Structure formats: C-alpha cells, structure tokens
Amino acid sequence: MRLTPSSGLTILTVHTDIGSELHFIQTGSGSNSYQPTDPISTATLNRNTSTGQYTLTAEDTSSWLFDSAGKLLTRTWPQGEIWTYTYSGDKLLEVNDGYGSNARKLQFTYVVNPGGFDDGQLWRVGDQAAAGLSGSTPTGRYVEFSYVPEKNNGTQISNPKALLASVRDVR
User: Fold this and answer.
1) Which of 65, 86, 122, 149 could bridge to 160 as Cys pair (CB 3.0-4.6 Å)?
2) What are the residues whose beta carbons fall under 8 Å from the beta carbon of 163, sequence distance 6 or more?
3) Which of 113, 149, 116 is nearest to 134 (CA)?
4) Distance CA 25, CA 164 (A)
5) Do the strands 155-156 and 33-36 form a parallel or antiparallel pair, or are they unpaired?
6) How far apart (Å, rounded) are the C-alpha atoms in residues 141 and 50?
7) Could you read off the pLDDT of 30-87 as tens digits, one per residue?
8) In sequence order, which residues have a C-beta less than 8 Å from that of residue 128 and are 6 or more positions away?
9) Coil, helix or strand for 84?
10) How many alpha carbons lie under 13 Å from residue 162 in its C-beta half-sphere?
C-alpha cells in the first residue's frame, strides 16, 4: 500500500494491495483530518503535523502508518500485531512481524545492473532463515526471479522493459 498526497494536501489517495484506490478529502481548510469520498466507507485518515506522517484507520481498528512521502511504515492489526516495513530509498528491504527473537520476516533484494534492462528489478525474496541474498551464494529459504528484455517480433528493442521470465523456489 502507498499513499499519494495531492498538491496542497487537500486530496489523498491510498493505493491498496489489490489495485484499488481509496480517496480522502480534507475535512476543512487547514485541517489535518480527511474523510473518505465514498459515503459507505468508515475509514479515517489523519496527518500528524509534527512528523508529516499519515495514519489510516479502518472500522475494525486496523491501522496503516505512512511517512510524509506516502511509503507504508507499519501495519497494525486489531489484535495488536504490528508489521514494520523497512526501505532503502524507494525499495522495500524487509517486512518484519515484530515478535522479537522469534520474528518472522521477508527480506527483499534487487538486481544491480547499472544501465541494464533489469537494473532495480526484484531479484530474491527470503524469509528470516535466508542469508546472503544479495551475494552469489545465498543460504536458507528464498525465491529468485529472473528477467528477459522486452522484444518486438523476436528482436530486442532499445531501452527494453524487464519481463519476468522465471521464478525459482530455492530451499
């Protein structure tokens, strides 16, 4: 999920994991509260002026905390479980469920191929047992993605997009 503020912060759009969008409009001039444009929705969205962060709260008390740029920082479930999202720039590096030494997590690494068609694409996703995912000899449980360059009638085009070619489950 991510949040996209409009210029002037009067309209906010939340892009959900399933591809839908939730739109919120500022409740009043200078207000830090936003109401959904869908009259059926009971979600609330508030902006913390000291941090610039946004908190989206659902009817079941689930909440999502976004930074000022709209990146998801935490997801809190009604039972109190908290997932934390860690980034490097715009790239998601880790999702951690916060259970201390028993924490479950997903780790993400990306292709480093400056100037290449696949530079920056998702390369490997591992769980808490995986190690060395950005190296040549990773260990543990992970999946690995590979890509091929975009082609037109079998001929590679200039500035091709990376197309997913395979997903390999490594255990």
Assistant:
1) 149
2) 147, 148, 149, 150
3) 113
4) 37
5) unpaired
6) 41
7) 889 999 998 888 999 999 999 999 999 999 999 999 999 999 999 999 999 999 999 9
8) 103, 104, 105, 107
9) strand
10) 17
